[in-house]
């Protein structure tokens, strides 16, 4: 851990967008980081920028959380790395096609990432955090969780799951 660190935050989907913004803001608030996403080049760019701006330790882990073996590696890290005090479950994707135009394989992959990976990572992190009586898990949802879009309801349903399970994980 860097000097004056609040611990380590593991952020999924950190190669851009909301995940990269969360990572940068958490570093400014004193966290060291573990950035997880599929795109190594983009992760390295985000990590370099955050290191330069914050001086905090930033580790890059390339992983496709839709891949069971790669997901298991991140689960294991969450279970065993006692420096991790914050998990941001941000990785996810939607579809620009209607349900009838999208393939069932794409919809299943969306559920695997948006629901299954989020659930598995939460279950991996929560027991250790509870035992230490210290830790936070942030699960990123979307406005379509409560105001579904007409185009593709699978994405909205996956984000509604995030909201529906939040009270269960809040123990």
Automatic annotation (TrEMBL):
**Keywords associated with the record:** Oxidoreductase
What EC numbers are recorded for this enzyme? Answer: 1.1.1.-
Which EC class, in a word?
oxidoreductase
One Pfam family this chain carries? adh_short
SUPFAM superfamilies found in the cross-reference section: NAD(P)-binding Rossmann-fold domains (SSF51735)
Q: Which family does it belong to?
A: Belongs to the short-chain dehydrogenases/reductases (SDR) family.
Question: Can you name this protein?
Answer: NADP-dependent 3-hydroxy acid dehydrogenase YdfG
Q: Which gene encodes it?
A: ydfG_1
């Amino acid at each position: 851990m860097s000097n004056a660190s609040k611990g380590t935050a593991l952020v999924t989907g950190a190669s851009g967008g909301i995940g990269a913004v969360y990572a940068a803001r958490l570093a400014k608030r004193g966290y060291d980081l573990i950035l997880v996403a599929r795109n190594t080049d983009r992760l390295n760019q985000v990590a370099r920028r955050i290191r330069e701006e914050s001086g905090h330790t930033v580790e890059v882990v390339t992983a496709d959380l839709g891949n069971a073996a790669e997901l298991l590696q991140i689960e294991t890290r969450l279970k065993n790395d006692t420096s991790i005090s914050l998990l941001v479950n941000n990785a996810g994707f939607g579809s620009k096609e209607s349900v009838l135009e999208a393939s069932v394989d794409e919809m299943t992959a969306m559920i695997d990432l948006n629901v299954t990976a989020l659930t598995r990572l939460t279950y991996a992190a929560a027991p250790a955090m509870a035992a230490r009586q210290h830790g936070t898990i942030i699960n990123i949802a979307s406005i379509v969780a409560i105001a579904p879009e007409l185009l593709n309801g699978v994405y909205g349903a996956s984000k509604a799951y995030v909201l529906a399970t939040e009270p269960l994980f809040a123990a």
